[in-house]
Amino acid sequence: MDIGQVPDQIRFDLTASRNGLQIEFDRNDFHTMTETHFHREYELYYLFSGERNYFIHDRSFTVQPGDIVLIGSDIVHRTSDAGIPGYERMLLYYDPAFFDGFSAEHKQLLLSVFSHEYPILRLKLQQRLPLEALLLKLLGELTEEPPGYEIHAVNAATELLLFTARELLRQEPSVHYEPTPVQQKITAIVRHIHASYAESLELEDLASRFYISKSHLSRMFKEVTGFGFSEYVNLTRVRQAQRLLKETRISVTSVSEQCGFGNFSHFGKVFKQLSGVSPREYRLFNS
């Protein structure tokens, strides 16, 4: 199958089975992720064509055709338009249970792709050809759904991880991270948010601290990370609250205070908006 023959959208979901695998393909003009994105699944993203901005944890990257993006469990990330219309991308989500059927050695090998310093593997043409042949065969199976196509999907998803692991072992990191001055500034601000989430974090105060105007900081933060400033502060605080609710027995009120929420009602509202459940329900489900 040629990439042009692939439908504009494909969705495949085996999360209800022990394999814990989801696969997506999309062909879009412009698109920015609107949902807050962090999840327990490991994520592999491949860009066939176009160009995308990708914010991962505290750094921003420009993703090009032939790039594999590797995102570990519970890592905050968001994609946004890079100003060039049109792109084709493929996403695979691996639930932690996906790896349970492998030996300890092989599980470690496959999961190792998600723990490299640089989350992007940039492939040369001779590497892209066999990989895209594998992916196009998989997309053909998902489109036509012949008997046993689910088995093929699981095997191809495993082969994709093995291909990536071998390439990472074979070569040095293929993306030398050279952030622009704006990206460097925003990374410093993001790291300050990570370190100071329990304190007051106002846009005006950070603008003064980092010698940048309030309006410019707001605009650049959104452009580099894909998140609004307040949105990202709330996300950081909620993630810390989730950690405390899972790992400690301190009261929900204390969790709210320790994570920088001055108002308990506001904490409950923001937490449920981002987590889908109340803080107390989250603790119950994760105890």
Describe the structure.
With 287 residues, this protein is an alpha+beta fold. It has 2 domains: 168 residues, Sandwich (Jelly Rolls); 105 residues, Orthogonal Bundle (Arc Repressor Mutant, subunit A), CATH 1.10.10. It is built from 10 helices and 9 strands. A 6-stranded antiparallel beta sheet has the order 1-2-8-3-6-9, covered by helices on one side. Helix 2 runs antiparallel to helix 3, helix 7 crosses helix 9 and helix 7 packs across helix 10. The mean pLDDT is 92.
Topology:
Elements: E1 9-13, E2 21-28, E3 42-49, E4 52-56, E5 59-63, E6 67-71, E7 77-81, E8 87-94, H1 104-111, E9 120-122, H2 125-144, H3 149-170, H4 181-196, H5 203-209, H6 214-225, H7 229-247, H8 252-258, H9 264-275, H10 279-285
Antiparallel strand pairs: 1-2, 2-8, 3-6, 3-8, 4-5, 4-7, 6-9
Helix pairs in contact: 2-3, 7-9, 7-10
Concise summary:
The chain is α+β, with helices and mostly antiparallel strands.
CATH superfamily membership of the largest domain, which one? Regulatory protein AraC
**Total DSSP helices:** 10
Radius of gyration: 20 Å
Fraction in beta strands:
15-25%
Total beta strand runs: 9
Poorly predicted ranges: none
Mean pLDDT across the residues is: 92
Instruction: Summarize the helix and strand pattern as letters.
Output: EEEEEEEEHEHHHHHHHHH
Structural class: alpha+beta
| Strand ordering within the main sheet | 1-2-8-3-6-9
CATH topology (fold) name of the largest domain: Jelly Rolls
Q: In the CATH hierarchy, what is the class of the largest domain?
A: Mainly Beta
